[in-house]
Amino acid sequence: MSLMNDAPRGGRSGRLLLAAYAVLVVLFLILPILVVVPLSASSDAYLRFPPGGWGLRWYQAAFNEPRWWRATWNSVLIGAPVAAISAVVGTCAALAIARSRAGWTRPAAVLVTAPMMLPHVILAIGLYPIVVDLRLTGTFWAPILGHSVVGIPLVFVAVSAALRNYDFQLELAAMTLGANQWRAFSKVTLPMIAPSAVTGAVLAFATSFDELMLSLFLTGPRTETLPRLIWDQLAYALTPTVAAIATLVLALSLAILVLVFVLHRFAAASEPSTSGSQP
Amino acid sequence: MRGAALEFRDVAKSYGELSVLQPTSLHIEPGEFFALLGPSGSGKSTLLGTVAGFVPLSSGSIVLDGQAINSRPPHKRNIGMVFQNYSLFPFRTVAQNVAFPLEMRGASKQEAQAKVEAMLAMVQLGHLGDRLPKQLSGGQQQRVALARAAVYDPPLLLMDEPLGALDKKLREGMQDEIKAFHRKVGSTVLYVTHDQEEAAAMADRMAIMNRGRLEQVGTPRELYDEPRNAFVANFLGEANLFRLRDGASSGALVETQSGLSLKTGHVAAHPGPCFACVRPENIQLSEGSAASDNSFSGGIEDAVHLAGVVKYRIRLNPNCSVIVRAASERGARLHDLGETVSVTWKAKDTLIIPE
Fold first, then answer.
1. Burial B8-47 (b: 16+ CB within 10 A, else e)
2. pLDDT (tens digit per residue) in B55-65
3. Three-state DSSP class for A187?
4. Which of A97, A187, B8, B254 has its CB 3.0 to 4.6 Å from that of B26, i.e. a possible disulfide?
5. From the candidates A177, A180, A182, which should be mutated to test the interface with B, based on the most B CB atoms within 10 A?
């Protein structure tokens, strides 16, 4: 590390250039935020950037419109079960694959994570006829099951990472000490992977809360989610209400981001010791 | 608690066609410190696993304190186990680790606390109860593992290469500590290692394992002095092994395939190929000619100065060389490479053993 720090670097101009580049990249990444937040505080009657005047009238309008409230509540009603289902199923899948020494574990891991790579529109096309067959159209189960398909891999990946260095011999040790199989798992393995499982579940909730494509196919008027309502509103009424809602969703996403970060620190703190051979 | 007797009755394990443990019978005395010694893959850890309950038996039974335990699940065997990598629970403090088996047994908080404190004091870690395992050194972690495995007074302690992860200096210190610990807790100990010096230094008795069976059982000294076969002679300490010519032994004189005639104190008839075995420290080395039961001369091919001893390799003829261990005296001259010396040993030190 110190070698790296002492290594010769480019001159002053080179460093300035690098700094400018870094600023540009960060600007590019947060530009949508820099646009949408001012838009939401516009006093204009339609979406225009930059806004002609300032005010919170569109927030007021959003709060006064029951449809936004209902859509938000729908998103929570869908996101919470998605997080729970993803946490349980994703954790079990990660455990099964981490424990097994069989040859099928690698292909199985690829299959479990496949929904992360697949375009949502393709998942939606596949899921829609299934939902129709199961007579679930218009129910909450349709988006819950659909979103779980993308939520489970998130938990799976997080828990698998936590299990990569996990030594299942700890469970054997617990058993010799008098713990039956369930207690060996719940008292030893579960506390070690819980932070990762919760992180994955929070991400699954956030993904469900943001998801549009599957929701377009799988929700009906009674179950429409927040992103779907935003989409519909954008299609025919370009009022800054949408920007206000977007800003609120942004604030929620940031809160979730902070939560994930904190959980991550917690997970790192419970990593197993690797200092076995130090004198 | 006093230690309990442990008995293996025709214990065998195979995975399909592959037999990893031949039918094995062994009796371990109450309170005994018994070592299972063998190379990796010899079945010693499998045998230990059958006692812990991780390895279901294919046949036979394991009897602890008069009761067959082989059909019980691991958590109902009341056996303590110490693992090579300690297997401490990383998110629990030292004291919480030691309290774990008491929690599982439904001990009250006060009872558990008193026992944990007493146990930590015994392994001199009373002041570190609030630390997490990763904040301790390897030796300290091993002591926590010992305390955790013994806090509920199990009549039997299993140890699977418990010192394998420590460096040599620390390992020797921990050997003494584990011995002292054993004397204090009084449990029977079944100790697995591949390190023959460790086994010899610690065990009351030991078994040498090879290819899934016990080659020989006895005190370290018996095994060293009277190895039953070439594998044991080679595995425990160092041995000069001379393959004998088939059927060429007449009385106290045997012929080796490499053309030596050796005098031996004990001729035993073994079927199959036999070896003459001479321990390197039983061979005397001198500059002039010397008389003894066995006397040869040869050139020094190699000399290695180890701590306290010099190890020479001396070529007796083109097909045969011997290893000699000579005490290294301070300031004494080492023999030069190529120098011709005579090597002698007594007839009683030539053992005849089967392969």
1. bbebbbeeeeebbbbbbebebeebbbbbbbbeeebbbbbb
2. 999 999 999 99
3. helix
4. B8
5. A177
**What are the DSSP calls for B60-88, one per residue?**
EEEEETTEE-TTS-GGGS--EEE-TT---
The pLDDT, as a whole number, for residue A278 is 36
Burial call A65-104: b when 16+ CB within 10 Å, e when fewer: eeebeebbebbeebbebbbbbbbebbbebbbebbeeeeee
- Per the CB < 8 A criterion, the answer to whether B76 and B39 are in contact is no
CB contacts of B152 in chain A (<8 Å) are 177-178
Q: Which of B258, B236, B233 is nearest to B352 (CA)?
A: B233
Going from the C-alpha of B274 to that of each of A177, B12, B216, B235, the distances in angstroms are 47, 29, 17, 17
Q: Which of B134, B142, B170 to mutate to test the interface with A (most CBs of A within 10 A)?
A: B134
What is the per-residue pLDDT for A273? Answer: 41
Report whether pLDDT(A178) > 70: yes
HSE-up (13 A, CA, CB side) for residue B15? 5
Q: Is B62:B70 a contact under the CB 8 Å cutoff?
A: yes
Give the tens place of pLDDT for each residue, A146-158.
999 999 999 999 9
Spatial separation of the C-alpha atoms in residues A97 and B7, rounded to whole Å: 38
Enter the tokens of residue A241.
Answer: 């209400």
Cis peptide before A50 (omega within 30 of 0): yes
Amino acid, res. A214: L
B54 contact residues in A (CB cutoff 8 A): 172
Which residues are within 8 A (CB) of A267 and not within 5 positions of it... i.e. 6 or more apart?
A162, A195, A196, A199
* Residues constituting chain A: 279
Question: For residue A250, which of A64, A39, A67, A78 has the smallest C-alpha distance?
Answer: A39
Please give the residue of chain B at the shortest CA–CA distance from A170: B87
Residue B84 is encoded by which pair of tokens? Answer: 């090579």
Which stretches of chain B drop beneath a pLDDT of 70? Answer: 1, 247-251, 267-269
pLDDT digits (tens, 9 = 90+) for A28-43: 998 888 888 888 888 8
Return the pLDDT at A190: 94
A263 has a pLDDT exceeding 50: yes
Does the global pTM surpass 0.95? no
pLDDT at A8: 56
The Cα of A205 is separated from the nearest Cα of chain B by a number of Å equal to 27
Contact (CB<8Å) A175/B167: no
Alpha-carbon distance of B205 to B217, in angstroms, equals 7
* pLDDT tens sequence across A211-262: 999 999 999 889 999 999 999 888 877 778 888 888 888 898 889 889 888 8
From the list B119, B48, B72, B322, the residue with the least C-alpha distance to A178 is B72
State whether residue B150 sits within 8 Å of chain A by CB: no
Query: What is the rounded CA–CA span in Å between residue A233 and residue B253?
Result: 107
Residue of chain A whose Cα is closest to the Cα of B85:
A276
Distance separating alpha carbons of residues B149 and B117, to the nearest angstrom:
14
Rounded Cα–Cα distance for residues B10 and B21 (Å): 10
Interchain proximity A273–B83, CB inside 8 Å: no
Q: Which one is predicted more confidently, A192 or A275?
A: A192
